[in-house]
Write a structure and sequence with these properties.
Blueprint lengths: L2 H4 L7 E4 L8 H12 L3 E5 L14 H15 E2 L4 E8 L2 E8 L8 E4 L2 E4 L7
Parallel strand pairs: 1-2
Antiparallel strand pairs: 2-5, 3-6, 4-5, 6-7
Length: 123
Amino acid sequence: MHIKDYENAENTNIDFKEKVEYKKHKSWLKSVSAFANTNGGILLFGVRDIDKKPVGLANITKDSEKVSELINDKITPIPRYELKTFKEENKDFMEIKIGDGPKTPYYYNADGRKEAFIRAGES
């Protein structure tokens, strides 16, 4: 898949993220929970959400390892997901396909709290 192919995807099923937030991981993990609790979806890292500009990721290896670690540690039960990395125009990107889950609800766990999210439109 190419970056321009994502432009035609429905916004309800895709979230664009400029980078992997390590400290503010709730910003994208709530999307993982929401996709798993509804119809599934895609997180695309390396693309600015505001203007859909492809900016790429600085350290794709570290980012992909951290994403897997955080999903496995912070979302319960662990959702079905597939992580793929790809390069386009010398920029690295990461796609995470989250499947709709058979074991809903899927919770984001942090600070002793469990929160379940769902998709409603583009949020």
